[in-house]
Amino acid sequence: MSHLAETAAAVGDAESAAVLYRLLVPWKALNTADVPEGMRGSTSRYLGLLAVTMRRLDEAKQHFDDALAMNERMGARPWHAHTQADYARMLIARAARGDAERARALLDQAAATYRDVGMDAYAATASALAREAAVSTP
Question: Going by C-beta distance under 8 Å and a sequence separation of 6 or more, which residues neighbour residue 74?
Answer without folding.
Answer: 31
